[in-house]
Write a structure and sequence with these properties.
The chain is mostly helical. Among the domains are: about 70 residues, no CATH class; about 35 residues, no CATH class. Helices cover about 35% and strands about 5% of the residues.
Length: about 180
């Protein structure tokens, strides 16, 4: 920090004890805004978002803001005048791609279905997803591709469980 000019240093609008390089001000403001959100109320300048001003000084600042001059100059300046040096002749071409009907429009889905590209079934219902995956496997591995048959699922445990205790049933008592 020894090689910095004093003009490169600025103070934090939230806490005047915070002094930093001008290029670090925006990053610092984000941190201080969170720390002082309940205690300090600052308004944002309409000409430069880095200018945070207390409400009593806001009206005076908007009148004298140095960035206001840039906006006012832009709004009041006359339109650029075209002269012979800045004009150029219209470029004519005999080629017009809009008139060429022989070339079909690009269809990315058609291209992906014919190229060796892995596609994913995003946004499909489960049945559509299953059909899409089967079609993709046929497309990638050939028409004679057969899906591997999964073994049937084992019977669920629910079928093998005994019925829960039912107090209405008469059970033999041991004596």
């Amino acid at each position: 920090m020894d090689n910095c000019n004093e003009s490169d240093m600025v103070f934090c609008p939230y806490n005047k004890e915070h002094k930093m390089l001008r290029k670090k001000l925006q990053q610092h403001i984000l941190k201080c805004r969170v720390l002082y959100k309940d205690t300090v109320e600052l308004m944002v300048c309409p000409f430069n978002k880095a200018h945070l001003i207390p409400e009593p000084e806001f009206f005076q600042h908007t009148k004298s803001c140095e960035d206001r001059k840039i906006i006012v100059q832009y709004q009041t300046s006359a339109a650029a005048v075209l002269n012979e040096d800045t004009k150029h002749a219209k470029i004519e071409s005999e080629e017009n791609w809009d008139d060429d009907d022989a070339v079909p429009d690009y269809n990315p889905q058609l291209y992906c279905s014919s190229a060796n590209i892995v596609r994913e079934p995003n946004g499909l219902f489960p049945a559509q997803r299953k059909a899409f995956i089967a079609e993709e496997n046929r497309r990638q591995f050939g028409e004679d591709y057969e899906e591997e048959k999964k073994p049937p699922k084992a019977k669920s445990r629910v079928e093998n469980r005994p019925a829960p205790y039912d107090p209405r049933k008469q059970h033999a008592r041991r004596q």
